[in-house]
Amino acid sequence: MSHYFYDMIPAEELAQLHYLPTVPEYLSWIVSKWAGRPALSDTVNTYTYAQMGSRIARRRTLLKEAGLQPGDHVAIFDKNSIDALESFLAVTSAGMVAIQLPAQLPAPAVIGCCAKFRAKALIVRDEFRPGVEGAPCPLISASALGEAETPAAVVDKESPAAIFFTGGTTGAPKGAVLPHRALMRGTFNGCFAPGSQLSGHVTIGFLPLSHVFGLICGTLSKLMCGALWYSAEDMKATIGKLPVIRPTVLVLVPGLVEVLVGLTKMYGPQFLGGRLNTIISGAANVPAKLIAEFKNFGIQVLAGYGMTEGANLTAGNAESLERPTSVGKVYPEQEVKLVNGEIWFRGDNVFSGYYGDPEQTAATLTEDGWLKTGDLGRFDEDGYLYIVGRIKNIIVLPSGENVSPESIEEAFYQCPALRDCLVKEVEEDGKPVLAIEILPRAEAFEGKTPEEIEAFFKKLAEDINATLPTTHRVSKVIVRKEDFKRTGSLKVSRKDN
Amino acid sequence: MTQEEIYAKLQEILKTVKPKLDPARISMDAALTTDLGIDSLSMLLLSLAIEHEFGFQFQTQEPFKTVREVVDYIEKAI
């Protein structure tokens, strides 16, 4: 069994890892294989894999006592805590469907989601409880454990395991349903990174468990490898504990990678605990500068590509420095093709549809199982995948030409004095033109006047325009004085700016 | 610590968080975002550095607007 990903880890470790198609099989395997190892910690309490298995079995008892049956929907509303993770594993190993609610969701929206997704129960963090008393289903305290243990259910790999919120590949928020086989294929894929993976890594759940990247790659994959997972209920407080936790691997978004680079520069690698060797970053492009800066500290930054509908990772790049603009190679057991430039995937990592939305499901998933990603891509001669842009972001010019704003922004991102930028269509003298909004790096323009900064970026635009097809040239440069509006994962929001 | 001492130490931290910032711009009434170019990411970094250097933890989610507001908060917290 040889493959780009399989070859990353030692052969004796590869021989131990197997794709387990359902959560009950996965949970039973990790609890028995890693029984005596520490599994979960909040720096005060630490539980071994065996203890975690027992606590999850006691949580299943609470679900049974609440009268819940396999197939029932159970919403979970909590921060990134041990309770939240164990609740997820209890619900899914009992054959029920977990609805992963983001912790920052306002209480009325939580109540609305319980109704919309027909939740039969809401597992809620005690401090969130007062706001959601009006939910249309019984509440279960996330901190409660049952007395006795209840065994896991036997589930079919095609049955739904969890519902995640997603902007989807085409717009408004929806609930993406991941069957067990998809959740577990994503979990298996997330086990591969260069170097030993089973030797007892230490990681921190910085990214939300309500997002596939945080839950699957950041958590379930790490547990499959026998790692110790620290909860992160408060992002800033947990960063402050890095010298104590001493993680060896972290799964992050680029914004957080940048914060950690800053801390490392100020206080040295010891501030991160001194033994961090791998950062897996996704959800947005990772600037090559950050990858190079971490390499100087002996830390490899790996970029990935994926989406909720594909159970997180569908491609990964272990050579971020050599090919910084590629998202890497496609994971095994998947078919991939380009249809009119759009990336399509097929495999058991593909979701089963949007809950209660057959129209959007049909627009995203073909009858024969292909996931239409909405991303425009290309492959190089060595099989590395590059994301060129998003179909829904395409700007159609009055001439009928299609322009992908990302392809223009990528050229501007090469300038180190630019922090972020956004290409959009604006009206100038009554006709639509391409404009670029630029957020300068303040430290690059110390002592410069606004006019000088604007002149710098106008010159940059002229230089870049000269390298672009005439249809792709920007004719207006807007220099921002304030930050862009950003999404929850700190990306520049294309919708709100 | 007096306000002046806190202010002096905060200036040092700001210089570390934003190495190319002209120290003359760090006045008590300087706005963190528009005058000093502190965005949401550098604010996370700045607050971690302040906690590390002054040895306390912020207990507020309210955003600070000016250097003076940060100095006042630190004075009460330590």
The greatest interface between two protein chains, and residues involved on each side, is: A-B, 25 and 24 residues
N-to-C span of chain B: 8 Å
Number of structurally distinct domains of chain A: 3
- The computed structural class of chain A is alpha/beta
In quaternary terms, these chains amount to heterodimer
The total of beta strands of chain B comes to 0
Distance between the termini of chain A: 47 Å
Total beta strands of chain A: 25
Instruction: Write down the CATH topology of the largest domain in chain A.
Output: Rossmann fold
* Form type of chain B: globular
CATH class of the largest domain in chain A: Alpha Beta
Q: Report the C-alpha radius of gyration of chain A, rounded.
A: 23 Å
Secondary-structure element order of chain B, as H and E? HHH
Mean pLDDT of chain A: 90
Report the helical percentage of chain A: 25-40%
- Percentage of residues in strands of chain A: 25-35%
Q: How much of the sequence of chain B is in beta strands?
A: under 5%
List its traits.
heterodimer; A: 497 residues; alpha/beta; Rossmann fold; GMP Synthetase, Chain A, domain 3; 3 domains; seven-stranded mixed β-sheet; five-stranded mixed β-sheet; 14 helices; 25 strands; globular; B: 78 residues; mainly alpha; 53% helix
Describe the model:
The complex is a heterodimer of chains A (497) and B (78). Chain A is of the alpha/beta class. Chain A folds into three domains: 1-9 and 194-391, 3-Layer(aba) Sandwich (Rossmann fold), CATH 3.40.50; 23-155, 3-Layer(aba) Sandwich (Rossmann fold), CATH 3.40.50; 394-479, GMP Synthetase, Chain A, domain 3 (2-Layer Sandwich), CATH 3.30.300.30. Chain A has 14 helices and 25 strands. In chain A, the strands form six sheets. A seven-stranded mixed β-sheet of chain A has the order 6-5-3-4-7-8-18, with helices on both faces. A five-stranded mixed β-sheet of chain A has the order 11-12-13-14-15. Chain A has a four-stranded mixed β-sheet with strand order 2-1-10-9. In chain A, helix 10 links the parallel strand 11 (249-252) and strand 12 (278-281). In chain A, helix 6 packs across helix 7. Chain A is globular, with a radius of gyration of 23 Å. Chain B is mostly helical. Chain B is globular, with a radius of gyration of 11 Å. In chain B, helix 1 (3-17) crosses helix 2 and helix 1 (3-17) packs across helix 3. Chain B has three helices and no strands. The mean pLDDT of chain B is 86. Chain B has helices at residues 3-17, 40-54, 67-77. Chains A and B meet through helix 8 and helix 10 of A and helix 2 of B.
